[in-house]
Please model this.
Amino acid sequence: MMFAGGTESFEARYRGVSPQLLARVRQNWSAQQIDLDALWREAVAAMPGFRDPEPGVAALDSRPVDLLLLFDQGYLWVDALRREAAALIAHPPDAQTALTREQTSGLGALAARLCDDLAAVRLLALAGLATPAMQISRTVSEDVDLALAILVRRKVAAAFDACRTPEDAAAFWRSHVAGGRAFQLVARALYEHGLDRGEDSEYARWRREVLTFLGAAVHGGPGAGMGAAAQAARRAPLGSALQECLYFATVRVQELSAYAIVLGASLRADLGRLAPQSPAQAARLRFLLRGGDILIDQMRWLTEADEPPRRSAALH
Model:
């Protein structure tokens, strides 16, 4: 199957993917009546540095390509948020918005930054460059926490919007992000909705474990697994360390989508007032407003299909 203009089909870009996963993805998008192919061409195929995985990377195990497909689905959601936050700023609804201008612009800025970060992680994973991919995956996690904090706390959004210099940004980071501050703010908001993400929860322990692993790329010496032999093993495209990067970044973006359902009533209200100006915008808005179940189902697939039991903490 070829797209108009000679572009190969969505399926052809993930050779070796699990047939069960591909069927499940197609079924979920069809159930929500959202054109996956159109959004994928607009966002994923157009991301900076987009490329296919090397032939044979899934010859023995579909997991690397499965992860890549799920990672790209998360990118779709973030790209849609970036575009529609910009639309809210440029053409606000006639009715009074539920989010403040600072919240909307902050979400748009962070979604744009996440798009860049995710594109970089994807490119590095396919190139076999684990160390920078691990570093950027930590940034993805911080930006997800900050986006959710801005969604639930107007004062954080106002402080973020007020940053004008590198010194301002450093002070903001120390006050609102460093030491897991943004995550703790979001965890408290989620707890009010019955989700335990506190410091003593299984999820928080899993999160700390992964961040410690990723932190080895920044702070680790040869004794932390960063010696020549370990580095050589990490250079394989979509190798084990890079799969861990894709896994963690994917889960964090899936959480951004899922928690935006729980905490984002104001965001949904504002997006629901936008009048689509094109079929593409209508598809993006439908995905943001009704497509959360797609990524939540993919989160279940990701955690249930993975072997290490510690990863089940991402769901519970």
User: Anything to note?
Assistant: Residues 15-314 form one domain. The chain has one domain: 15-314. The radius of gyration is 19 Å.
